């Protein structure tokens, strides 16, 4: 598939019908490729509200999503999990280039800039409000996160976890998400680790030589017998 629509489809189905906890995570393995994971979680009470409004259970909705995606891409998966308190549906799959990522995000997401320039990677995206979700009267919580392809230099997210920038959305207002990371460079911590790995053997060797010289000097200094002069 040149421009995969599997998560775009998931977005339409979920955001038009659900207003629960949604997680959208994009991981860049390179500046142009990676994978996307979209998951939603609802309580048993929220599922009952969904069923009253749509005549569908959470599992039926997740199964419908899996059927719509089909077997066009075996790397794309849809999984459903249910406990006494919560129901969770997760769809995830890869993108091989930025055009595919744009197709996954869909028209409701405005991409100002995603890509590499002058040794830096830029992520500049606007998520549109999810007005349809509010019609069911259930509060929505969206966590949008991006794992950048390098050390994060700047961002406007709510949290930074390593190379992952996290934004929290309520779905009522558009959110402008921006992050910049280094591309192709080596983080200082890895430089320090490499230097340490190189210097440690040299340091140990130097300590060993010094210890050998001390021991050798100690063995070479013989005591002078009593009653005799050293110069006799």
Strand content: 35-45%
Calculate the mean pLDDT score and round it. Answer: 78
Following the backbone from N to C, one meets helices and strands in this order, namely: HEEHHEEHEEEEEEEH
Shape: elongated
Strand order of the largest sheet: 3-4-2-1-7-10-9
Number of helices: 5
Q: Which residues sit in consecutive blocks of at least 5 with pLDDT less than 50?
A: 187-195, 228-232
**Helix content class:** 25-40%
Query: Helix/strand/pairing class, anyone?
Result: alpha+beta
Counted up, domains total: 2
Rounded to the nearest angstrom, the radius of gyration is: 30 Å
Main beta sheet: 7 strands, mixed
Terminal CA distance: 99 Å
Number of strands: 11
Describe this structure in words.
The protein is an alpha+beta fold and 232 residues long. The protein folds into two domains: 6-182, no CATH class; 186-232. Helix content is 33%, strand content 35%. It has five helices and eleven strands, in the order αββααββαβββββββα. It has helices at residues 6-17, 44-54, 58-69, 98-105, 188-220, and strands at residues 21-30, 33-43, 77-82, 86-95, 109-117, 120-127, 141-147, 152-155, 159-161, 164-169, 175-182. The protein has a seven-stranded mixed sheet. Strands 5-6-11-8 form a four-stranded antiparallel sheet, covered by helices on one side. A hairpin with a 2-residue loop joins strand 1 (21-30) and strand 2 (33-43). Helix 1 runs antiparallel to helix 3. It is elongated. The protein starts with 5 loop residues before the first helix and ends in a 12-residue tail after the last helix. The model is unreliable at 187-195 and 228-232 (pLDDT under 50).
């Amino acid at each position: 598939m040149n421009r995969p629509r599997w998560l775009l489809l998931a977005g339409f189905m979920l955001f038009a019908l659900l207003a629960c906890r949604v997680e959208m995570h994009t991981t860049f393995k390179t500046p142009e490729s990676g994978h996307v994971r979209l998951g939603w979680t609802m309580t048993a009470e929220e599922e009952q509200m969904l069923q009253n409004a749509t005549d569908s259970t959470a599992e039926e909705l997740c199964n419908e999503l899996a059927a719509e995606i089909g077997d066009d891409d075996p790397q794309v998966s849809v999984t459903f999990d249910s406990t006494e308190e919560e129901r969770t549906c997760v769809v995830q799959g890869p993108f091989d280039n930025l055009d595919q990522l744009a197709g996954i995000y869909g028209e409701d997401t405005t991409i100002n800039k995603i890509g590499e320039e002058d040794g830096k990677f830029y992520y500049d995206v606007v998520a549109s409000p999810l007005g349809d979700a509010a019609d069911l009267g259930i509060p929505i919580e969206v966590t949008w996160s991006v794992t950048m392809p390098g050390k994060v230099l700047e961002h406007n997210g709510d949290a930074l976890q390593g190379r992952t920038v996290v934004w929290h959305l309520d779905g009522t207002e558009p959110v402008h998400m921006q992050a910049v990371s280094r591309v192709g460079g080596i983080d200082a911590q890895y430089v320090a680790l490499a230097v340490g790995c190189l210097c440690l053997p040299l340091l140990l060797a130097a300590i060993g030589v010094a210890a050998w010289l001390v021991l050798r000097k100690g063995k070479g200094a013989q005591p002078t017998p009593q009653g005799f002069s050293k110069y006799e």
